[in-house]
Amino acid sequence: MSAPRTLYDKIWDDHVVSTDETGTCLLYIDRHLVHEVTSPQAFEGLRLAGRKVRAPEKTLAVVDHNVPTTPDRHTGIKNEESRIQVEALAQNAHDFGVEYYSEKDKRQGIVHIVGPEQGFTLPGMTIVCGDSHTSTHGAFGALAHGIGTSEVEHVLATQTLVQKKAKNMLVRVDGQLPPGVTAKDIILAIIGEIGTAGGTGHVIEFAGEAIRSLSMEGRMTVCNMTIEGGARAGLIAPDETTFEYIKDKPRAPKGKAWDMALDYWKTLHSDEGAHYDRVVVLDAANLPPIVSWGSSPEDVISVQGIVPNPDDIQDETKRTSKWRALDYMGLKPGTKITDIAVDRVFIGSCTNGRIEDLRAAAKVVEGKKVASTVSAMIVPGSGIVKEQAEAEGLDKIFKEAGFEWREPGCSMCLAMNDDRLKPGERCASTSNRNFEGRQGYKGRTHLVSPAMAAAAAVAGHFVDIREWK
Ligand SMILES: CC(C)[C@H](C(=O)O)[C@@H](O)C(=O)O
Ligand code: SF4
Fold it and tell me: Which residues form the Aconitase/3-isopropylmalate dehydratase large subunit alpha/beta/alpha domain (predicted)?
């Protein structure tokens, strides 16, 4: 009998092409997702070296960060820099024979939402993208890494990646989530617990009853933010929920190929007794809805809590940095979270821009109105999500409540397109990053779940979704 292995060990072993004397490996890459921000120099490198893309059929390109999300976007991109990046990807995809979803394609959207919904993301695969939130795809039991631009070029040219193996970490979330508490709250709580460096050097496998009970959308939310916890990647073993999600997706294996794939996928779980270098255990039943108060995703607290006092922190560097965060956020220690008023609400991003997220938000706002002091928008994560939401009438619910209903893209998750906060504006956001300037110069971000963001839009301040009527 061979030694028991973790899910990470298994996928790793199945993809190692060669190992050198230092332990550095060449890994075979099954899928490569490409967006406009991190690919122009990579394609240029290929061009200069006279190289081709090694496996165009394993590569998929889509624009997301720079595309406008306003209904008039078919008239073209006004911002010069954004337009150049988007045009470059279109040209590169054409020149190198890579499938490409432009902003006019219904399948366009945020790269990490598009991959899974096309069945491009499958269990057991190695998946890369020049984007840190590639960890999202780990929800399918795929080993999914974010990579840099020079690595994008390497993968385009060779379909391999140079990697050293990371350590194994297990995060087990036992029990069942209480009503009103979501996958977003799970991952925010985990990051609050382990800190933004907590996963450094590790691949995190998420397991336990609460994780198993999550839908694929919820699992993607959890794996998406693994990167905010410092880990190389996040993983969840595939199960019936996974297979059910994948089954009819356009690029999923069909017929005999499906049966064979399923046989393999069912072996993709950690063996009994497999070794983890670190184990963290949380109890889902104790989790509240969570709100971030500072400028790091580890700065989190229960919605029933108060803004903490940095003076209670022993470590001086940390104390100074948390004071700075409070100053940036315009908050005082002791303020009740539910007394914090918001100016903007953003529901979208690769963390929470999927259909289930929009359903959760719509349920909260149905028949209600966005507060007069708040400007709020919903940005579906992809054209497919948008179409599904419209088929269910969610767009009407949102529009009647006073939300803007936008076209798909990264939007206000990061200030790289026209959607951004003005200096001093405070936003309840379903995205994943809250560092200074992330959503716009001097903008203030509070990370929350879709239901919590929706409730804040209506109330004008944070409210405990568990008490929502
Ligand atoms: C622009 C891109 C390289 C970046 C990332 O890698 O994550 C972006 O998606 C982000 O979320 O900050
Ligand atoms: S939605 Fe945000 S986090 Fe996701 S890829 Fe786009 S910018 Fe990055």
Answer: 9-460
314 and 463 inside one domain = yes
> Could you tell me the distance, in angstroms and rounded to a whole number, from the CA of residue 194 to the centre of ligand 2?
22
E-strand ranges in 254-351 read 278-283, 290-292, 300-302, 344-347
The H or E element containing residue 42 is helix 40-49
ipTM of the complex: 0.99
- Residue 224 Cβ inside 6 Å of ligand 2? The answer reads no
| Ligand 1 centroid distance, CA of 65 (Å) | 8
Q: Is the pTM of this model over 0.95?
A: yes
* Tally of domains in the chain: 3
Binding-site residues for [4Fe-4S] cluster, in ranges, read 350, 410, 413
Specify whether 314 is located in the same domain as 178: no
Helix (H) or strand (E) holding 441: none
Q: Flag whether 265 is in a domain.
A: no
Could you tell me the CATH number of the domain that includes residue 93?
A: 3.30.499.10
Q: What is the pLDDT of residues 179-192, one digit of tens each?
A: 999 999 999 999 99
Residues 297 and 420 in one domain: yes
**Residue whose CA lies nearest to ligand 2 atom number 2:** 413
Ligand 1 center to residue 134 CA distance, Å?
9
Q: What is the pLDDT of residue 1?
A: 64
Structure token digits, residue 371: 């507060």
